[in-house]
Amino acid sequence: ADVEIIGLQGSERQLDFVASELERLDLLLSMDPLKLRRLAPNRVKRILYDFALRRFRRRPNANAQAISIDDFHLVYGTDVADCLNKMGAKITGAGTPTIVVEGVAKLDGARHSVVPDRIETGTYAMAVAMTAGDVELVGGRLDLMEAAAQSLRAAGVVLEKTNRGFRVTRANGLHGVDVMTEPYPGFPTDLQAQMMALMTRAEGASMITETIFESRFMHVPELARMGANVTIHHESALVRGVPKLRGAEVMATDLRASVSLAIAGLAAEGDTTLHRVYHLDRGYERLEEKLAAC
Q1: Contact (Cβ atoms closer than 8 angstroms) between residue 87 and residue 107
Q2: pTM, to two decimals
Q3: Distance of alpha carbon 259 from alpha carbon 267, whole angstroms
Q4: Alpha helices in the chain (DSSP H)
Q5: Which of 5, 139, 274, 288 has its CA 20 to 30 A from that of 123?
Q6: Strand, coil or helix: what is 138?
Q7: What's the CA gap between 7 and 182, in Å, rounded?
Q8: How far apart are CA 227 and CA 260, in angstroms?
Q9: What is the per-residue pLDDT across 90-143, written as a single tens digit (0 to 9) for each?
Q10: Measuring CA to CA, which residue among 229, 249, 248, 253 is closest to residue 240?
Q11: 3 and 36 in contact (C-beta within 8 Å)?
Q12: What's the DSSP call for residue 19?
């Protein structure tokens, strides 16, 4: 089988680490620049994996393959482990420093309610804040996005728990706040672009520092087309709030950059046209319908 890869444009985040781990599992037989080729082994090897802190994060997309090996220390997140266990996997230690996966012959179907996506939740919260709206995010969980919630509250956004999720409103205007991306439970790098869009309309200045990915300020020139005042210096961006944004034709460069431009467009005067929305569709299901419902 050929598996096509869509990476993070403009970043040094590469497929090397994915390929090396797949090779250790005897899964990867060859690799093209944009494809992992022939992932079809007869048996997956047993390995021990150490999740040391790395500059570029790993994603839990190897979990399903890991279940068919003898012992494997990989599962990321107790919710993933809970779901896989319901399907017949044998995973212990989820939520602890050591996770053990005991191989099984097969997995069965199961019914599981997944944990809400904290990035999607935070994105909609920032969209509401950008437009001074009043919206209840049904199913949203503040405990999964505490760092982002703290920054939003410091900026003047009101977040109130409800029986179904939480409500997002804005007391008065927005205030500039400083943000530094960090691994969980810190402020997520995947909310950095959205927070920057929000800060373009805040009173005063804010400093946004990216410590996880390189070259993740590619949305800045596009925000500038809309009238934003952002200055980049190495891994930090100084955002000075402006009285208004104006609609423009802008281009998405990656998933989170694209939704940040959509957020900016919600508050801009005039029409905003966002090109290359296939980036957006990778991470947000029916975004236009959900925003229209507000």
Answers
A1: yes
A2: 0.78
A3: 13
A4: 16-24, 63-66, 78-86, 118-130, 146-154, 192-199, 220-225, 255-267, 278-281, 287-292
A5: 5
A6: strand
A7: 20
A8: 14
A9: 999 887 778 888 888 899 999 998 888 889 999 999 999 999 999 999 999 998
A10: 229
A11: yes
A12: H
